[in-house]
Design a protein that fits this description.
By secondary structure, this protein is an alpha+beta fold. The protein contains six helices and nine strands; from the N terminus they run αβββααααββββαββ. The protein is rod-shaped, with a radius of gyration of 59 Å. The strands form three sheets. A three-stranded antiparallel β-sheet has the order 1-2-3. A three-stranded antiparallel β-sheet has the order 4-9-8, covered by helices on one side. The longest helix has about 55 residues, at about 150-205. Strand 6 and strand 7 (about 295) form a beta hairpin.
Length: about 325
């Protein structure tokens, strides 16, 4: 089809452009996906990617399969069996924990008081005969000295022995209280240990070391940029518009030079390349005396449709007034 010069090119179809851009994006995404699905092979096992059909939108699906070596698989299976056995033990301990937590604590205060009384009774069993003997010795000594009972000397000696007795029994009492407190704290610690034992056992079971699947090396990511199809289509359209405008502006700006020799007889290498808005044929040619390529009309064609724009020069050749062309 002959090109009509000066006619603006048709704008690109936005739906076709969008469809082409979408298709380009899809192809780029698929290419990037293939670049980054690199299968890995190690002494412990393999990680292999494979195609797995497409989804509802047509996008390709992939799957990753991990296969372990026989030795690693055996270790994993053994550990999983141990974990299952430990889990069953943990269930039994869970029931035991509930029973232990709900059971009442022993009477810690009574235990401490019993320990205090027992210690004091033991100390008193030593002090009672000791101060009984001291009392007898004091009475005998005073009698031998002729100190009569009820006198000041008698009373002072008895009071001194009484202070010693009171101090000794007081020390025994304080020591008994300290022993009772120590016994009470120990009883509390023992009771808590008994209560927490099932919980500690369960915690130890749950924190056991587990085998892990082999870690495969990470493949560096690689991505190809998507082609800007829409931008290229628009750029090409704008270039066509600019070329069309430049051609017609250059063609009809020849009118500023008044008459242009356009007689076919003055030209050579004539090639028709299109037509103007008014339907005039447009040619590419060179003058017989000039090697430069030019674009324009032929006076013979213009005379058929616009004779008023054609003039005969004194040489007999025809010229065209480009400014008069429509």
């Amino acid at each position: 089809m002959e090109k009509q010069l000066g006619k603006a090119p048709s704008p690109p179809d936005p739906y076709q452009t969008a469809a082409a851009q979408t298709q380009s994006n899809k192809e780029t995404a698929q290419y990037n996906a293939a670049l980054n699905r690199v299968s890995t092979y190690t002494p412990y096992g393999d990680l292999v990617y494979s195609s797995n059909g497409t989804d509802a939108s047509g996008a390709p699906n992939y799957r990753a399969d991990v296969s372990l070596t026989p030795q690693t698989q055996d270790q994993l299976s053994t550990q999983q069996a141990q974990n299952t056995a430990i889990a069953h033990l943990g269930l039994g301990l869970t029931d035991q924990i509930g029973s232990t937590i709900n059971s009442p604590m022993p009477d810690i205060a009574a235990s401490g008081k019993a320990a205090q009384d027992a210690y004091y009774a033991k100390e008193a069993s030593y002090l009672d005969p000791q101060y009984g003997n001291l009392q007898n010795d004091l009475n005998a000594s005073l009698a031998n000295k002729g100190v009569i009972e009820g006198t000041d000397a008698w009373n002072r000696a008895q009071e001194e022995l009484g202070r010693q007795r009171t101090q000794a029994y007081g020390v025994a009492q304080n020591t008994a209280i300290q022993n009772g407190q120590t016994s009470q704290a120990q009883a509390l610690a023992n009771a808590l240990t008994i209560k927490n034992q099932p919980l500690n056992q369960l915690s130890a079971l749950r924190s056991g070391t587990q085998i892990q699947n082999p870690t495969f090396p990470t493949v560096p990511g690689s991505n190809a940029n998507s082609t800007d199809v829409a931008g290229l289509v628009n750029q090409n359209y704008q270039s066509q518009v600019a070329n069309s405008n430049n051609l017609m502006n250059g063609l009809f700006s020849l009118g500023s030079a008044a008459l242009i020799a356009s007689d076919r007889r003055l030209k050579r290498d004539i090639r028709r390349i299109g037509r103007s808005r008014s339907g005039l044929p447009i040619y590419r040619y060179r003058y017989r005396t000039d090697p430069t390529w030019r674009v324009g009309v032929m006076a013979q064609d213009v005379r058929k449709v616009q004779p008023g724009a054609v003039f005969t020069m004194p040489s007999g050749f025809m010229a065209v007034n480009y400014a008069a062309l429509v």
